[in-house]
Amino acid sequence: MKRIFLKTCLILFLLILLVYVTNITAIPNSIVLFQGEELNLGVVLGVILKDKNDEYASIETSSTLNNNILEKKNITLSLFNLIDVKNIEINTIPKTSVVPLGNSVGLKLYTSGVLVVGMTEVEGQKPYENTGIEEGDMIVEVNQEEVTCTAELLNSINNSKGKNLSIKYIRDGEEYVSTMAPIKTKDNEYKLGLWVRDGAAGIGTMSYYEPSTNKFAALGHGIIDIDTEELINISSGELVTSKISSIVKGKEGVPGEIKGTIINGETIGNVCNNSNFGIYGDITDKSKLGVSTTNEIPVANREEIKEGKAKILLNLENGVREEYEIEITKIYKNNNANNKSMLIKVTDNKLLELTGGIIQGMSGAPIIQDGKFIGAVTHVLVNDPSTGYAVFGDLMIKQSRQTN
Prior knowledge:
Blueprint: H1 2-26, E1 30-34, E2 38-39, E3 47-50, E4 55-56, E5 59-60, E6 71-79, E7 83-93, E8 97-100, E9 104-119, E10 138-142, E11 145-146, H2 150-159, E12 165-171, E13 174-180, E14 183-184, E15 190-191, E16 194-210, E17 215-218, E18 234-241, E19 243-248, E20 257-261, E21 267-275, E22 278-283, E23 297-298, E24 308-317, E25 320-331, E26 342-346, H3 349-355, E27 366-369, E28 372-381, E29 384-392, H4 393-403
Parallel strand pairs: 1-7
Antiparallel strand pairs: 2-5, 3-4, 3-6, 6-7, 8-16, 8-23, 9-10, 9-16, 9-18, 10-11, 10-12, 12-13, 14-15, 16-17, 17-22, 18-21, 19-20, 21-22, 24-25, 24-27, 25-26, 26-29, 27-28, 28-29
C-alpha cells in the first residue's frame, strides 16, 4: 500500500514538473511589445516575473516613448521567488502612424539558393537516394561554390560530366553536406533528378506605408511554396506595379481571385522579409503609390479594437481606392501565434456584388476602425466567402521592426 502511495506521489510530482517545464520552455527569450501593451505571459502558479528592483505579475510598457526610441527591459522568471529559471529581453516599440493603402501590387521573391520542390527518376535511377536531401531543402553550394539560382546549379551539374558533386544544403537553419553523382540522359545532359526553384511571383494587396521609416507591409501572410507548402526563405525581392485584368467572383466552396499581370511592372520597393505576418520591405519610389502623408493615421493597439463596424480599402476598379464596409465579429486578443487575429465579415453590398466577399489577391487589404489602422485581411473561409480572418496591426508593426 505504501509503495503504491509513493508511486502515485512520484507520478503526480513528475506531471507537475512537466507542466512547469513545458510552460517555461514555451516562453520565448525575447519578446516585442507595442507601446502601452501589457505583458501577460499566463505563467503557472509560483512562476514570478521580476526585474532587478521588484517583482510583478505583469509589466506594462511605457506610454511616453518617442517615435524613434526602442525601449528595452530585462526581466527574470523566478520559481517561487527562490530559483531564477529564465532571463527574458523585452523590447518595446513606440506607437506609430501609417498611410493605409489597398493597392494591388506584384511581388517577385528570390530565394537564398535553390529550393528542392520535387524528385524524379533519371533513366530509371535515383541519384538523390540515400543522400539525405529532401523536398524543402535549400541547396546553397556545389563543390564549395555558391549557388544563387537554378542556372548556376544546372551549369555545375553539366560541367561535372557525371563525377560526384559535393552539395551543401540547408534544412531548418542547419547546414548539411552530401555527395551526389549526376546521371547522363539520352539527350547527353546530366541530371540529379531534383526539381528546383529559385523564386516566386504573384499579386497581392499593400497594407500600409510608414512614412517615419519608409517601410511597407503587404499581404498579411507569407508566400508559401505550392509544392513544399512551406514559407519561402528569401534572400531578396521586388515590389512592383501590377495591372488587374479581371476579377473572379467567389462562391461557396470555390474561392474567387483577382487576376492580373506584373509584366512591365515598375519597381516600387525592395522586399526584405517573407514572414507569417506578411511581406515587408522598403519603398524606393513613393510616387507610384499614389498616396499622400496627409492620409496618415495612427496604428491601434489591439485593446482599442472592438467588435462591430469597420472599413477596408481596395483599388479594384480603374485604379481608384475605395472604402468598403465590413463587420468584426470576433477578436482573439491573446493570439500572437498566427495571423488569424480577428474574424471579419464583408457587409458592403457593392463589394459582395463585385467579388462575392474575400477573394485571393485581396489579402493585405487594410482595415480601419474609428480613424485608426487596426490590421489587414489575411484569409477567407472557403465555405463562406463573405467571411474571413485578419491580422492585428500591432503584430504587423512588430514584424516590420524585427525586419530592420
